[in-house]
Amino acid sequence: MPRKKKMLLIVNPKSGKEKMKYHLLEVLNIFTEAGYQVQVHITQCAMDACRTVMREGEHKDLIVCSGGDGTLNETVTGMMHLKKKPALGYIPAGSTNDFAASLEIPRKMSASACAAVCGEDYPIEIGSFCKERYFVYLAGFGAFTEVSYLTPQDKKNLLGHQAYVLESVKGLASIRSYPMKVECEELKLEGEFIFGMVTNTMSVGGFKGLVNQDVALGDGLFEVLLIRTPKTPVEFSSIVSSLILRDESSELVYKFKTGSVRFLSEEPVDWVLDGEFGGSRTEVQVDNLCRALCIRKNQRRYC
Question: What positions carry a catalytic annotation?
Answer without folding.
Answer: 276
